């Protein structure tokens, strides 16, 4: 067994938290030879419920769980952490405008960014799941001036996995046959699931499906999948979101498979014409714990328009939260 690493999870008593913590503790995220110490952050009223979750974690007697810290203090939760999964966020209430939602989440992710800046390991890997995930990640990043901006990422992996699954189903193949999927941009309904580079069983995806299905079925289905789950289940995606969070962190820690890539929301750097300043979904490869944007992909007019539309939305969100930046 390796030396334990510290993994913070916020919103730990919520529904994604309940689907996530047991898998992290079981070794699904970092491997069966990597013990973890969980640092669980909740708001004060949720601490009794969180205590119940801690009791259950202990009752599992996981070989890879080396300790649990449960707290309502971000300074304690982020002390010396190697990984931080920021799941807890303010949901949109009835009649709440996007501006109010961004503001309410700024009040969470600004202070959490500061606490990470003060207490986390200098190479901490931060994944923001709580919505609006990309902009919440930007707020946290902009409040952590001493950390590398690349420490902050947002989750588009659930969209990536949903897209793989839809394409596999359509082509009668398994999702493991689908490679080189891309989710560009925001984790919202403007995201652009791009099939131009995807392959199924080694064949170009767009040679196997017709353009009408791609445009009028696949893209909206992936974009609206979150809403479809809420309609069917009466609650938002939880187990699949937790699974995608595990996938995102495992890939970031352990690397991408040869000949494939994944989608991650990461700081834009000008690649593919997306100016610096937002957290944007890109195709990336990962090696030795560092991600790199896949370069040199050809972008046609169809893709360009969609990539720019989701960029525009992210810049509008950014404009609504810039006053919350520390630098
Ligand atoms: P829940 O409402 O079940 O749980 C959220 C938990 O966060 C609650 O226990 C709450 O007490 C806690 N919390 C609130 N503010 C906090 C703070 N300042 N510090 C610590 N904890 C805090 O929501 P759940 O279904 O678990 O979803 C969590 C977030 O994930 C939501 O914002 C949701 O929109 C987002 N999602 C993101 C997805 C993605 O792909 N990026 C997909 C799934 C999900 O919709």
Task: Outline the secondary-structure elements.
Elements: E1 5-10, H1 15-25, E2 36-41, H2 47-59, E3 65-71, H3 74-77, E4 83-86, H4 98-119, E5 125-128, H5 133-142, E6 152-154, H6 157-171, E7 178-179, E8 182-184, E9 192-194, E10 199-200, E11 203-204, H7 211-223, H8 225-233, H9 239-254, E12 262-267, E13 279-287, E14 290-293, H10 301-321
Parallel strand pairs: 1-2, 1-4, 2-3, 4-5, 5-6
Antiparallel strand pairs: 7-10, 8-9, 10-11, 12-13, 13-14
Helix pairs in contact: 1-9, 4-5, 5-10, 6-7
The structure holds ligand NAX.
Ligand NAX is lined by residues 10-11, 13-17, 41-43, 46, 87-89, 91, 108, 129-131, 133, 155, 158, 187, 226, 236-238, 241.
Characteristic terms for this protein:
327 residues; alpha/beta; six-stranded parallel beta sheet; three-stranded antiparallel beta sheet; 10 helices; 14 strands; globular; binds ligand NAX
